[in-house]
Amino acid sequence: MPVMAVLTFTDMGIWCPAGDFFIDPWRPVDRALITHGHADHARSGHGRYLATETAAPVMRHRLGDISLSTLPYGEVLRIGDAQVSFHPAGHVPGSAQIRVEVGGEVWVVSGDYKLHHDPLSEPFEPLRCHAFISECTFGLPVFRWTDPAEVMSSITDWWAANRAEGRFSVIGAYAFGKAQRLLAGVGPIGPILTHGAVEATNRVMRDQGLPLPVTVQVTPDLDLKAHAGALVIAPPSALGGPWIRRFGPASTGFASGWMALRGVRRRRAADRGFVISDHADWQGLNEAIRATGAEKIFVTHGYTSVFRRWLAEQGYDAEVVATEYEGEALEAPEVIE
Amino acid sequence: MKRFAALFTALDRTTRTNAKVAALAAYFREAPEEDRLWTMALLSGRRPRRAVSATQLRLWAAERARIPLWLFEEAYPVVGDLAETIALVLPPPAHETDAPLSYWTRLLLDIAAAPEPARKEAILTAWDQLDETERFLFNKLVTGGFRIGVSQKLMTRALAEATGQDEAVLAHRLMGDWAPQTTTFAALVMANDPSANLSRPYPFCLAHAVEGDPAALGPEEEWLAEWKWDGIRAQIIRRGGEHYLWSRGEELMTDRFPEFAALRDFLPDGTVIDGEVLAWGQDSPLPFAALQKRIGRKTVPKKLLAEAPAMMLAYDLLEWEGEDIRMQPFCERRRLLEGALASLPPALPLRPSPLVEITDWQALAERRTEARTELAEGLMLKRRSAPYHAGRKRGDWWKWKLDPLTIDAVMVYAQAGHGRRATLYTDFTFAVWDGPDLVPFTKAYSGLTDAEFNKITNWVRRNTLERFGPVRRVNPELVFEIAFEGIQESTRHKSGVALRFPRMVRWRLDKPASEANTLADLKEMLAAYG
Ligand SMILES: [Zn+2]
Ligand SMILES: [Zn+2]
Questions:
Q1: What is the pTM of this model?
Q2: Catalytic residue among B228, B302, B401, B523
Q3: B23-59 tens-digit pLDDT
Q4: ipTM of model
Q5: Which domains are delineated in chain A?
Q6: CB-based contact B285:B276 (threshold 8 Å)
Q7: A261, A266, A320, A328: best to mutate for the B interface, most B CBs within 10 A
Q8: Which of A142, A165, A304, A323 is the best mutation test for B, with the most CBs of B within 10 A?
Q9: CA–CA separation, A252 vs A170, rounded Å?
């Protein structure tokens, strides 16, 4: 049976003809359903926005005064002839897969997702569907994440060793998502210092009730001596700039899925690379796709052509879709995402 | 293997020399002797005889990981390293063991002659007993190319620290052709037997580049100058009735250059000469391309011997009448060298590299500009009173290379880098104008900062015209200044020229593509310097 196009791919974004709305569009549209607040998925300039309740505060913080309505996870909303619902994607707090049903035909847009545990994000929910639109940022079999609990304890070990030498431990992590996942993951190891960009997101997330440990924002008049040996969380770009100099001979680390590759670890010239990603690894992608039961798979960003061929060999009807999503950028171009 | 893996991780995590030396020294104190010996071997580029081909490794790894070979091949360039790619795709080990490093090297030696099914079984079993880092290292034992930012010098320093032996003495002992299978740690490192290895070369003395004005080096009378030739730096050793030719890369090249065998009848036993091997024409070097034909050839056909005969221009005398004279002043060694070579028949392929007269720094600077016509890379400045140091030491030897040739060219193709640059476009093809057309003439992939590569990568994504696998044809808009050391005629390139050591020196944001250089400009350089 030919699959009816519940969603189509336009040069403005993913469009639903039955409901006349877009999902994560990259050009300004009237009505946008947003999977999560990262800059490549939630852009400014749309007429109306719809997102999950948990995603809303960060989106407002990032995009300012937008016309945004929210929908709790799992609740079905009718838009035109389409039934729409949001389901946890496990990527960042509030992130969703968007399920669209038209005339019994179900398509799911994954946005970004991961299957590994994260203390703050709602765990990924497998959804049955006819067509699944999946990211594949890490769609190569060399990407296999270690247990995040193990990574967290190697971060605390690293911090403890540096503290014993009186050195700061400065770790580069995305200001929205990764930074908070680290905060929640390392637990209450005594005041943690944060870059302003990370702290701005922390404030938003604390206000919405997410459990984050105590942090102290680094400001020009902060007494660093009083915090010697602290863990410092900053956006990756801050590690390459003058900002970090105030910490003296600090030990530096990066938290990213790309740190699985020795070559990338070495190029970043940080002392340590911690392999921790908010995207699915190779096993995760395959497991998630299998669980959908979908026959039709569209791959959006990442190693798309390779992953498509792999899926095709596994018997899926797989296609590459050109989008403007970016995956886990290694060189975060902007401080706030 | 866990101890060796921990050493590797410690070395890989730091760029600080002291931390590396400390980690290595601790290892050299504590590890089993056989493991120490193997570690020294690996860090100096020695490895067990290859038991398995790279092709077999890939096939078996893909099979074990239950992925098709094409998928493995797609992942490989992203990782940039075969040993690492294999370590990453394999499923986690079923039951880890902690056999020492020497267990695994011995295993590889043992299976080298076994039939293929037995070798495969051994490799798969090994993979299933090692964690990710250990697997990576095990694969490196098989494939070679063990580069972890530890120079021979650094290793020697750590070994000296751990054993209390003199560093220079150790450096000398570790030269030449020893193998862990045929010696022991005690014999190689601790024993003091000068006749232990007659073929052993001395550690090469290396130079730093002159920075700024050479007048800062002091009075001219304290210095000697000579051409810096563009060949293979080597030592000729005449000991125990034999002769040996070693490259600076510690490769024994005796059989590749049979013309030096005749020296046996004329050089006295107990002689070691440092010099440059060149392909030689009538009375001057041939372009490097001629020598290139002989590099990598184990046996040399007669025709090639006639086309590109080898000559050594001697720089220095390190051993004379069986005595190590490296601590004597350079001017004295040079005098002895000239004396030693004066009586050789002129047909022999060995003569002193001529000195370049220094009247004053100004005049020498002018003379340096003629290096390209002499087919040299520039000048070497050596302090008359200096000993022959082991390795690269500041102060007594300076290389004063020519400024490179440069040309402004348009980027036409871009390709992602490997390994540490897998996520960036770093390998570019450049073209110059030929009338209205752009003719590609060279590739280059180094010389820019990471920040610049980031910017260019973003630009490439937005300006792709066509894709051919990993290569993108891009809008011909960006102009770069390309520097290179030499230019040769080439029938293999459409442009008709081939460059030596091309690299980017500057992104010419100030120049539109229309102002890039032309093929005629390149041809002019070819006529002048080719
Ligand atoms: Zn995202
Ligand atoms: Zn994304």
A1: 0.72
A2: B228
A3: 999 999 999 999 999 999 888 878 777 888 999 999 9
A4: 0.92
A5: 8-142+279-320 (3.60.15.10), 148-274 (3.40.50.10710)
A6: no
A7: A261
A8: A142
A9: 5
